[in-house]
Protein: Diacylglycerol acyltransferase
Organism: Arabidopsis thaliana x Arabidopsis arenosa
Amino acid sequence: MAMTITDGVSPTFSSASTRASNLHFCFWNSTQRLTSVAFDRLTSRKFGIDVKLKATVNPYSYTEEVRPEERKSLTDFLVEAGDFVRSDGGDSGPPRWFSPLECGARAPGSPLLLYLPGIDGTGLGLIRQHKRLGEIFDIWCLHFPVKDRTPARDLVKLIEKTVRSEHYHFPNRPIYIVGESIGASLALDVAASNPDIDLVLILANPVTRFNNFMLQPLLGLLEILPDEVPSLITENFRFNQEMFETMLNETDAVQMGRGLLGDFFATSSNLPTLIRIFPKDTLLWKLQLLKSASASANSQMDTVNAQTLILLSGRDQWLMNKEDIERLRGALPRCEVRELEHNGQFLFLEDGVDLVTIIKRAYYYRRGKSLDYISDYILPTPFEFKEYEESQRLLTAVTSPVFLSTLNNGAVVRSLAGIPSEGPVLYVGNHMLLGIELHAIAVHFLKERNILLRGLAHPLMFTKKFGSKLPDMQLYDLFRIIGAVPVSGMNFYKLLRSKAHVALYPGGVREALHRKGEEYKLFWPEHSEFVRIASKFGAKIIPYGAVGEDDLCEMVLDYDDQMKIPFLKNLIEEITQDSVNLRNDEEGELGKQDLHVPGIVPKIPGRFYVYFGKPIETEGREKELNNKEKAHEVYLQVKSEVERCMNYLKIKREGDPYRNILPRSLYYLSHGFSSQIPTFDLRNH
């Protein structure tokens, strides 16, 4: 791996970083649509699509062909670590920063990301993440030479020097610090000493207190281990390498628990490299360094003010325990914890772990002092969209959604042909139970029209207080990766200003968590400002209706029933108090925004139907619609159109021969699972 090392505050770069003649890249334009471009060949290696691309092709239509981007492996890490250690000065000298040359194609204004390594000290722990991280960050990695014995306090000073220099030059940008084990402790120490600098910490398996039950025997064993043992192993290994490789080929690491033992077998062919990285005295020093760094970070925890994302491996937690993490979560004021239950100790080197995707799902990427949900949002890659689509595949297969739209001449068609290509466009509709229509609509807009629909969502999907009984933030990852935005007047304004396609649900929580017998009943406020704001940007307003929940499930325990059960009543009141009430100014039913989970039982599945009406123009009417009475007339028109769309669907679905899942299944069997199932006749609209 080509890189340039420096002892100074910042790394230097070589001209090799400009090598981009055959790169395939993607960029995002103002209408929030992904455009594919390739030099040298019109083949998308980045997205894994073996088809020729044109600039007009929708990359989200090829989800069946999409594969994850090829990345380096754990073996690559060990090979390059070995080359790094053997290179001139690689195993001696002071700690220093380097910037991988493969990270040179970042976007303008990208924040700095400092990587602080784990116990290996090579600084190559993000090697599988470099390419994607390098598109949105300026990456510097810290390297601890094998023979280095710099104490924890001096390492913190080195990192602080870099942090303060970057903050001086770019005071309005955040500085990201990604740390593993030792690096995580050092990152917390730096944050504690610099509470006034805008830091974002991403800590993988942080250790703030040692598991002495595991540590003390290990230290004792290393102390008595003869110095000659590593060299004997290396020499003997030359004769047994074939045996190790045979064991690797014949052993299923997955069946071995995919843990530390499996990782050892996976890296056994590089055992000499491991021994070179971890000679006895170095390993002893690293463990002592980890102990002192974690003790220092632990003593200053109450002064840390940084935004923090903690990533926990679900397996191999031999240096820490979950009680320590809960204590850490409680001590840090802006902290979110995510558990990757199927991954082990080498988190960033394992398959299925994409740090950029994790950051995007958590909404932890920002370029300024605060998160801008519009300008800081990064579109899903085709593979991220494929993962999203696959998570909804069962619901889509069961409900076979029918999408209708209205052309300019008033004709209703079974497609999204009536949807304008250019924004701003505001889609105003009804919520079905639990908002189950949202995912199907978002998927269809991207697949058919390459349009990202930014949905205005309840704030509970974006923030959670420590100790709250609200659902874990990871439950809403899919909403965030697909572009959901916390509902607020400012976010609504900025979305329309950016010419986005925006989904708005005036009925909110009350409509999504309706009671028995309230299917397809609108709970809209008496007055709303969305018409006047839309007119400021000349946005088209498209009313739409969605039906089908009554064909999917039946409600048996609604809000009124649950409030009669004491422990459920107390739970509802507690979680509602922890959330934001968006309708404090409303009285009666509209003001009842209590959060709860309705009790439902499934039915033999029917079908979902979504009908987009004819756009209502606001362009050129800003002065007219600035009048509250005129704007209210349009508001009532939109509401009436939504009700008309729902009534149309409820009537027309009675004539759909494939409304029930049984005839749809037979149709699939006879025509193939990729075929579009017919629906009711649209000619008698």
About this structure: Confidence is low (pLDDT under 50) at residues 1-5, 12-55, 228-262. The longest strand covers residues 540-547. The two ends are 64 Å apart (CA to CA).
